[in-house]
Amino acid sequence: MELSIVATLYHSAAYLHEFHARASAAARALGRDYEIVLVNDGSPDDSLAIALGLQAADPRTVVVDLSRNFGHHRAMMTGLAQARGDRVFLVDCDLEEPPELLVEFDACMSANDCDMVYGVQQQRRGNWFQRVSGDAHYRLFNLLSSVPMPRNIITARLISRRMVQAVLQHVEQVGWMDGLFALAGFRQVGVPVVKGSDSESTYTLRRKLKLFVDAVTDFSEVPLHVIFYAGFIISLFSGCYITYLVFRKLFLGISVDGWTSVIVSLWFLGGMTILFLGIIGIYLSKIFIETKRRPLTVVRQVYRHGE
Q1: Three-state DSSP class for 144?
Q2: HSE of 104, CA atoms in CB hemisphere, 13 A
Q3: Residue 67 near residue 45 (C-beta atoms within 8 A)
Q4: How confident is the model at residue 5 (pLDDT cuts 50, 70, 90)?
Q5: Total of domains in the chain
Q6: 70-106 pLDDT, tens digit each
Q7: Based on the domain organization, do 170 and 248 belong to the same domain?
Q8: Cβ atoms within 10 A of the Cβ of 241, count?
């Protein structure tokens, strides 16, 4: 198998027929043997039924039905594990990212002799808050992590077989798959793209915040270092201030008063303590989850012609 096109399904019923037709046309334009792997991530609409209809009509279509909704990134990892192509084109099926990018990415990979070609948004879509928060996500991640991440990267990417195998070697409970691609290394080339659809994103603010927390705590230990240095600095200043108050009382005879300042200080230090314990708790929870060695997803059934 020369090429695999992998997409996940979640509230995707409205796009599936057009996506399948356009992805198939792009693959045929390359003149290569291909398959289209559709991973149903517990979609509550008719995505599975439509995908099975496409699979029955097209022997090149493979449907992977997960037992429930496991999340976008875990479903993509399952799709990569099921793909058999020498090159794997990973793309969302909601048509925000044109399936025709496959042709451009394939030419770029051949010309640059690289292992991954990924799309980068020329300009982030959405309102001002979505643009600012999206940009802040990558800036903060790169500030806190030792793994550099291209800004405004999208899902669409063409990946070599050896890079797919390298990514699949990471068996942790992945929260942010872009970080795994960065960790895998190899030569990667970014291509500027323009998203073409205005479909509503399934990523709510809560999911975006969780994704950012997972990204930082999965790929960086900097927050733990920040806790140490913050505690050290607070202790240093507190010690200096206590020394100053003792000096005033013993040598200058100035009494110390001000219950308001004491209460404010207690609230400040209490808040810092809770915040730091929360950060440590996130890391401990990840250790707890990883030690269980649970599978990323559970596959109910794989529909593949001839098997």
Answers
A1: helix
A2: 14
A3: no
A4: very high
A5: 2
A6: 888 889 889 999 999 999 999 998 888 889 999 999 9
A7: no
A8: 11
